[in-house]
């Protein structure tokens, strides 16, 4: 600062008046003084609160700070748009795997000229995490040019891409976002977007392979249909590895490729229909990228074309039936069997591929024209192959060349006569034939032929006619008489025929044709005679045939005649005897008639071989006929008597036969029912399960009459024993045919156990009575008990089987060993009456009985309403009546009720609801046992269950209560932690602070507390504490009517477990303690030693916290108070958090604390002590000191700052910088500022800070932020003080450079060389001395750039010059340093003659500092030489500086001459 330059004057035509009124050097000097004065009052704003984008410090005044003379413009600032630079940016993670963590450090550099306070906002997603940052000074400030390290942790859960960011916030509100990215090199597959499989025929198959190469990063791929994306899991696509997408099949669909690897993907194209098939598939990579591909294939149908056929091509006539799918119809000439007819067929292949084929014949499917409307249903395409080969095709199998014509020969050679109609199909073998069964006999093919033809042909046989074809003789023939009839044979064919008859003759008749064989020419008729004769009566039905050559079917002659004998008839349709009782006889009449003209001999018998009557063929006859045989005259009748007497019961089904000799047979159907009474029980044995002693048991028995005969019954109960009484209702009566009677049986048993009774029932008409057996198992009163671990609502929902399973378990009412004190634990006792006998019950406990609580009186009145509300489950709670002093809320009423139950003071009480009552038949009663608690301990009792009629059941009851009845009456109790007493932050050596805590005891006994305080030390690695006690561990030190013996105890600390594992075995849980004590009965008689292992939580100490009194007794149902004192540490060089906790070990000194067999309570170190935490902070006296200048605590100056524009040199100059002292604590700080040479305080001012803490304070109080007395300052909380600290640069210091260079031992002053620049560096301390003795040091540094200059040449020779004529040469003086310099030239002649010969113009001047490339840091001076005589001259020109620069010497020489040739 304070630079000036001497520039040559410029000629200006017109200039302002003010420029003419003052010299240039004076004007520059005055500007310098004005700027220096302005600088002292132009205080800069704190750059932390002004965005740097507004310019340097955000000032918009006409005077720019950068334009001020500094002497070193290199340190001037420019506008900046960024505050921090992050490296790397962005932060990219690559080559990661799921489930692993990756770390990377990010450097955040402050590129501004001021220190910055930053806050790092962590990433938003769970995949990135950032550390708190490692700062240069340990706080959140980053000095100019420095950087902090932030560790980024990346934990991906998949191979997808991740994006996030961390945000760097500065105190001025500007933010910088650093992107965080997870980028894995993506795979690059060589597959095209469309996988073209080409063309294929219908039902054909084409396999195409594609090579897939990965030129990118590694990856696993799964190919699936696009329609199924997204999916929840990929297992169904991994196995099998084929992807089915009709008509495509792709494999593999799951594979893994690394970089450079390839795999072959096979696609099978099997279309079933003509179409262009495309299927979209997607390839899913394990990095969650998805790419879509298209499978493409074209399906074509094979085509053939009918060209021609030689003759026989026809079109169906109207209403003519034809094959439903035939494309062409071919007919053949009508021929006879054995002849051959041929047709030639030409077919053209319309495709460009070879088509294998074969011909096949099928049965035609005929329909009328237009019946199918040009459509073919699917069922019409199912063809039945024909096994009759009337036609042949040559060739029948082969391959069609592409676009070629093939010629086929179809031959018709019939073997049988008839009209032939068949379907001939050309089958292309690329099509599948799916076989299925239409019926059981025929195999049907589902085919799609390439060409369909219908073949028609007719084969005409020889036409022979027989007239008449049937001879029917209407009259009856006599036995042995011959009858002759005439017939004719007509030949209507084209050729003659030969015939031959087959005559018939047997025992019944004879038939002869004459002549029996002969030849008949074409168109002729042959007459034949037929002779018929009957031998036995009856009907003649005969058929004789005539064989004609070349005719498969012979000519038949049918002859019918009737030969009659005697005829007898029965004038009744059947004979029905009806219902017949066994032992009785029934007679019926049978009328017979002779309808013939001759007498007939007859006989009537029973057909024993038919019906059920065949079973009694060997017994005596049951039927008697009168008469049984005889002779009946023509056209007369007769009545036969048939007597029936059955031998046994059955259903009668038989037949009577009336036989006429040489006549007919007539049959008569006979039926009837033979029965005797049969009555039976539907159940002959009755087992009664639910029978109870003395209770009637009613059941039913059923009698069923199985016949149509009515009868009567009677029960015989005389043989029943005295063990029971049995009664039937009704006891006797009638039972009709097929009738069923239900009889009620009432049984009352007088003894328990299993019994069986036999009761006979007499049935009239039956030889033996029917027997009823009754079996019973008489039960008594039985009650089942169970103690399930579930509440009443769940128990009520249990099934019968679940309740029985619970009853099989042992009875134990164990409430658990960790019931919190003050809670009401419940257990249920289930009593189930397993019988139908009603009884009474009574449930009670032996020791811990619940006291009577009067719910109807004031204090407990709300208990009943609480129960009603709990049962109804209402969401609304009853509000206490504020006008009624006895009215309480539900919670208070519950507490009052619990206190009433526990008023006996035993620590617990069991309430049993219901305790007495009636247990109905088969009733399940749930008894709720509620344990009310108010003191810790292990409780034992017995629950007695008394059932009337049964022995008492005793159920053990166990209850373990944990917790403490002592509570602190403070408001900052954590929900899941301990109470915390907060003392706040205090300066070290401050006065003690005391808090009073109230302790409430809700238990029934007085509790003694022994307090111990433990400090929490950061980094404490101790695991357990070993406590050794001599005598009682926690003796009673409170005098009660006499002296109390004090017993000492010793406490030792154990090393960490890893170092003392051989000393003793310690449980894994830190909360568990082990005590090794002597017999408790000897405690009062003699001293003993006890060792306790306790989990280490802190170090026992009495400083800085203290509890008074250390031992106290909290009365039962009352309260007391303790004082907790916090004394800040006397000397603290840094902020210290004082965290500690106090443990109150509880002891019970009353004898009723333990009751043998009922309650045992642990004390002292055996139970969890009462605890509260204490927090406080001791703050070290500390001020935040920072410079508002960009250089921080570093002063920069140049030696040229001592120069004035006129070349004068100041004795000293000051370089001032603004320093801010901020009190961030909550207490005033008194301090002194001590500075070492060459630093000094220049000016001081104060103001309040704008922190959040200061905003929350009362701003209405107007007080000075700083109080100064003599050389000390008092700075109020949350205020700061602005102070100008100056660096003094004196001319005397520059003159002592040589002395300073020789003093190498000086640590405060040193000379540093940086290239062409030499700097004089000063190191000092700003020492803040606080009133409590704490000293805070702030380092200060300063540097002064030392100037120097350099001559372009050290020797200058003017040569020979003309005497009196002035010669001039230019010499450049360069300033390579960053400090300006003022030079002065002095000419020293070497002899007397050389005086005033050499002159320098100008002889002094200012050279600017070498700051930038446009800086004028060099000056050209003119050296003049004027010779006086013809002789040689030499001088030295010494260039020296005003600021202690090293002098430069220039040697100049020249020679004068009078020779005119040297005249210029």
Question: What's a quick, concise take on this entry?
Answer:
Helix content is 5%, strand content 48%. Mean pLDDT is 79; it is low at 1-15, 49-80, 374-380, 431-446, 614-618, 855-877, 1040-1086 and 1248-1264.
Give the helix/strand layout:
Elements: H1 17-20, H2 24-41, E1 84-87, E2 91-93, E3 102-110, E4 116-121, E5 128-130, E6 141-142, E7 147-154, E8 162-170, E9 175-182, E10 194-201, E11 206-213, E12 219-225, H3 235-238, E13 243-245, E14 248-251, E15 254-257, E16 262-269, E17 275-285, E18 290-300, E19 304-309, E20 313-314, E21 322-323, E22 328-331, E23 341-349, E24 355-362, E25 366-367, E26 382-383, E27 391-394, E28 397-400, E29 405-412, E30 418-428, E31 434-437, E32 443-446, E33 451-459, E34 464-467, E35 470-477, E36 482-491, E37 497-501, E38 504-505, E39 509-514, E40 517-520, E41 525-534, E42 538-548, E43 555-563, E44 568-570, E45 574-581, E46 586-594, E47 600-606, E48 623-626, E49 629-632, E50 637-644, E51 650-660, E52 665-675, E53 679-681, E54 685-692, E55 697-705, E56 711-715, E57 724-729, E58 732-735, E59 740-749, E60 753-763, E61 770-779, E62 783-786, H4 792-796, H5 800-807, E63 813-814, E64 819-820, E65 825-833, E66 839-845, H6 862-872, H7 890-901, E67 908-913, E68 916-919, E69 924-933, E70 937-947, E71 953-962, E72 966-968, E73 980-987, ...
Parallel strand pairs: 2-9, 10-18, 22-33, 35-43, 45-52, 54-61, 63-71, 64-71, 73-86, 88-97, 99-106
Antiparallel strand pairs: 1-3, 3-7, 4-6, 4-8, 5-7, 8-9, 11-16, 12-15, 12-17, 13-14, 14-16, 17-18, 19-23, 20-22, 21-25, 23-29, 24-28, 24-30, 26-32, 27-29, 30-33, 31-32, 34-36, 36-41, 37-40, 37-42, 38-39, 39-41, 42-43, 44-46, 46-50, 47-49, 47-51, 48-50, 51-52, 53-55, 55-59, 56-58, 56-60, 57-59, ...
Helix pairs in contact: 6-7
């Amino acid at each position: 600062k304070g630079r000036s330059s001497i520039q040559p004057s410029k000629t200006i035509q017109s200039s302002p008046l003010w420029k003419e009124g003052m010299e240039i050097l004076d004007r520059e000097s005055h500007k310098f003084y004005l700027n220096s004065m302005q600088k002292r009052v132009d205080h800069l704003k704190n750059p932390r609160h002004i965005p740097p984008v507004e310019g340097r410090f955000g000032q918009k005044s006409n005077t720019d700070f950068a334009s001020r003379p500094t002497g070193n413009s290199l340190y001037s600032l420019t506008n900046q748009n960024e505050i921090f630079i992050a490296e790397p940016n962005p932060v990219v993670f690559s080559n990661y795997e799921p489930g692993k963590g990756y770390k990377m450090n990010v450097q955040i550099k402050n590129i501004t000229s001021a220190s910055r306070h930053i806050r790092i906002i962590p990433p938003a997603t769970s995949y990135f995490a950032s550390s708190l940052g490692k700062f240069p000074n340990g706080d959140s400030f980053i000095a100019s040019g420095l950087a902090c390290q932030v560790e980024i942790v990346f934990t991906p859960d998949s191979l997808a891409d991740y994006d996030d960011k961390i945000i760097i916030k500065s105190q001025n509100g500007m933010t910088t976002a650093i992107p965080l990215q997870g980028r894995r090199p993506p795979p690059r597959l060589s597959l095209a977007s469309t996988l073209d499989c080409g063309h294929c025929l219908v039902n054909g198959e084409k396999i195409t392979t594609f090579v897939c190469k990965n030129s990118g990063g590694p990856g696993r791929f799964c190919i699936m249909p696009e329609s199924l994306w997204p999916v929840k899991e990929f297992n169904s696509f991994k196995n099998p590895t084929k992807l089915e997408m009709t008509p495509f099949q792709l494999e593999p669909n799951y594979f893994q490729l690394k970089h450079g690897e390839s795999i072959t993907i096979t696609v099978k194209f099997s279309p079933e229909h003509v179409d262009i098939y495309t299927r979209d598939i997607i390839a899913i990579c394990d990095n969650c990228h998805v790419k879509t591909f298209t499978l493409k294939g074209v399906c074509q149908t094979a085509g053939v074309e009918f060209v021609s056929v030689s003759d026989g091509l026809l079109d169906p006539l109207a209403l003519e039936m034809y094959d439903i799918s035939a494309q062409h119809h071919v007919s053949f000439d009508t021929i006879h069997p054995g002849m051959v007819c041929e047709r030639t067929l030409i077919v053209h292949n319309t495709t460009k591929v070879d088509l294998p084929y074969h011909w096949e014949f099928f049965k035609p499917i005929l329909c009328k024209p237009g019946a199918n409307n040009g459509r073919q249903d699917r069922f019409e395409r199912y063809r039945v192959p024909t096994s009759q080969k009337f036609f042949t095709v040559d060739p029948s199998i082969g391959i069609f060349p592409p676009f070629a014509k093939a010629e086929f020969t179809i031959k018709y050679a019939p073997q049988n006569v008839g009209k032939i109609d068949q379907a001939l199909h050309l089958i292309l073998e690329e099509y599948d034939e799916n076989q299925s069964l239409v019926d059981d006999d025929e195999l049907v093919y589902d085919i799609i032929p390439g060409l369909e033809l219908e073949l028609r042909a007719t084969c005409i046989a020889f036409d022979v006619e027989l007239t008449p074809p049937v001879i029917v003789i209407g009259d009856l023939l006599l036995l042995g008489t011959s009858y002759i009839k005439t017939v004719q044979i007509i030949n209507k064919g084209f050729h003659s025929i030969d015939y031959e008859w087959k005559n018939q003759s047997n025992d019944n008749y004879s038939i002869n044709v004459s002549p029996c064989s002969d030849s008949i020419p074409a168109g002729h008729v042959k007459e034949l005679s037929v002779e018929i004769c009957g031998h036995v009566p009856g009907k003649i039905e005969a058929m004789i045939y005539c064989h004609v050559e070349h005719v498969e079917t012979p000519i038949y002659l049918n002859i019918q005649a009737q030969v009659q004998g005697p005829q007898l008839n029965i004038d009744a349709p059947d004979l029905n005897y009806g219902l017949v009782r066994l032992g009785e006889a029934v007679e019926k009449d049978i009328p017979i008639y002779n309808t013939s003209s001759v007498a007939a001999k007859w006989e009537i018998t029973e057909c024993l071989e038919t019906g059920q009557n065949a079973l009694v063929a060997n017994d005596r006859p049951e039927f008697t006929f009168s008469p049984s045989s005889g002779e009946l005259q023509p056209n007369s009748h007769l009545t036969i008597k048939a007597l029936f007497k059955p031998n046994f019961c059955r259903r009668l089904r038989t037949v009577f036969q009336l036989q006429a000799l040489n006549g007919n047979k007539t049959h008569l159907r006979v039926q009837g029912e033979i029965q005797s009474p049969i009555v039976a029980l539907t159940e002959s044995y009755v087992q009664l399960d639910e029978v109870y002693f003395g209770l009637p048991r009613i059941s039913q028995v059923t009698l069923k009459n199985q016949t149509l005969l009515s009868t009567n019954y009677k029960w015989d109960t005389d043989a029943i024993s005295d063990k029971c009484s049995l009664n039937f209702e009704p006891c006797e009566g009638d039972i009709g045919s097929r009738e069923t009677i239900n009889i009620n049986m009432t049984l009352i048993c007088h003894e328990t156990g299993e019994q069986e009774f036999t009761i006979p029932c007499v049935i009239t008409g039956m030889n033996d009575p029917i027997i009823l057996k009754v079996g019973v198992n008489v039960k008594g009163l039985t009650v089942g008990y169970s103690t399930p671990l579930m509440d009443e609502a769940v128990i009520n929902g249990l099934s019968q089987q679940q309740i029985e399973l619970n009853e099989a378990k042992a009875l134990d009412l164990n409430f658990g060993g960790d019931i919190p004190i003050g809670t009401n634990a419940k257990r249920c006792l289930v009593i189930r009456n397993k019988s139908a006998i009603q009884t009474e019950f009574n449930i009670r406990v032996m020791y811990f009985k619940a006291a009577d609580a009067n719910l109807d009186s004031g204090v407990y009145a709300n208990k009943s309403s609480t129960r009603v509300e709990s049962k109804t489950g209402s969401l609304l709670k009853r509000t206490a009546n504020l006008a009624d002093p006895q009215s309480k809320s539900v919670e208070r009423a519950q507490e009052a009720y619990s206190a009433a139950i526990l008023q006996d003071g035993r620590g617990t009480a069991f309430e049993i609801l219901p305790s007495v009552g009636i247990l109905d038949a088969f009733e399940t009663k749930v008894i709720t046992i509620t344990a009310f608690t108010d003191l810790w301990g292990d409780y034992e009792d017995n629950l007695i269950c008394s059932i009337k009629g049964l022995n008492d059941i005793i159920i053990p009851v166990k209850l373990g209560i944990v917790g403490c009845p002592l509570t602190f009456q403070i408001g900052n109790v954590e929900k899941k932690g301990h109470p915390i007493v907060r003392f706040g932050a205090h300066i070290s050596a401050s006065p003690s602070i005391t808090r009073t805590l109230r302790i409430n005891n809700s238990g029934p006994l007085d509790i003694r507390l022994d307090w111990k305080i433990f400090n929490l030390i950061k980094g404490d690695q101790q695991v357990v504490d070993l406590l050794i006690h001599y005598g009682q561990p926690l003796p009673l030190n409170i005098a009660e009517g006499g002296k109390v013996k004090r017993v000492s105890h010793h406490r030792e600390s154990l090393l960490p477990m890893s170092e003392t594992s051989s000393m003793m075995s310690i449980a894994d849980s830190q909360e568990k303690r082990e005590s090794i004590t002597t017999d408790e009965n000897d405690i009062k008689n003699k001293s003993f030693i006890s060792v306790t292992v306790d989990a280490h939580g802190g170090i026992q100490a009495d400083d800085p916290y203290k509890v008074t009194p250390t031992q106290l007794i909290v009365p039962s149902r009352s309260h007391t108070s303790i004082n907790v004192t916090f004394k800040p540490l006397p000397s603290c060089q840094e902020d210290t958090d004082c965290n500690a906790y106090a443990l109150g070990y509880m002891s019970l000194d009353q004898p009723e604390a333990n009751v043998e067999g009922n309650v045992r309570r642990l004390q002292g170190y055996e139970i969890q002590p009462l605890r509260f935490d204490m927090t406080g902070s001791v703050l070290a006296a500390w001020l935040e000191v920072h410079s508002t200048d960009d250089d921080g605590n570093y002063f920069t100056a140049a030696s040229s700052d001592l120069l004035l524009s006129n070349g004068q040199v100041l004795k000293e100059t000051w370089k001032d910088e603004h320093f801010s002292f901020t009190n961030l604590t909550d207490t005033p700080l008194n301090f002194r500022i001590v500075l070492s040479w060459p630093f000094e305080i220049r000016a001081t001012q104060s103001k309040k800070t704008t922190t959040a803490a200061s905003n929350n304070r009362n701003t209405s109080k107007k007080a000075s932020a700083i109080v100064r007395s003599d050389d000390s300052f008092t700075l109020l909380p949350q205020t700061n003080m602005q102070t100008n600290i100056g660096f003094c640069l004196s001319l005397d210091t520059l003159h002592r450079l040589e002395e300073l260079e020789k003093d190498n031992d000086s640590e405060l002053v040193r000379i540093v060389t940086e290239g062409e620049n030499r700097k004089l560096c000063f190191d000092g301390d700003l020492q803040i001395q606080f009133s409590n003795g704490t000293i805070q040091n702030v380092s200060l540094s300063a540097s002064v750039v030392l100037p120097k200059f350099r001559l372009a040449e050290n020797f200058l020779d003017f040569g020979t010059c003309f005497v009196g004529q002035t010669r001039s040469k230019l010499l450049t003086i360069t300033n390579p340093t960053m400090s300006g310099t003022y030079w002065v030239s002095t000419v020293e002649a070497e002899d007397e003659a050389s005086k005033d010969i050499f002159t320098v113009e100008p002889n002094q001047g200012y050279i600017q500092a070498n700051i930038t490339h446009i800086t004028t840091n060099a000056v050209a001076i003119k050296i003049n030489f004027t010779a006086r005589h013809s002789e040689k001259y030499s001088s030295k020109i010494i260039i020296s500086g005003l600021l202690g620069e090293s002098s430069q010497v220039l040697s100049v020489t020249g020679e004068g001459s009078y020779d005119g040739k040297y005249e210029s």
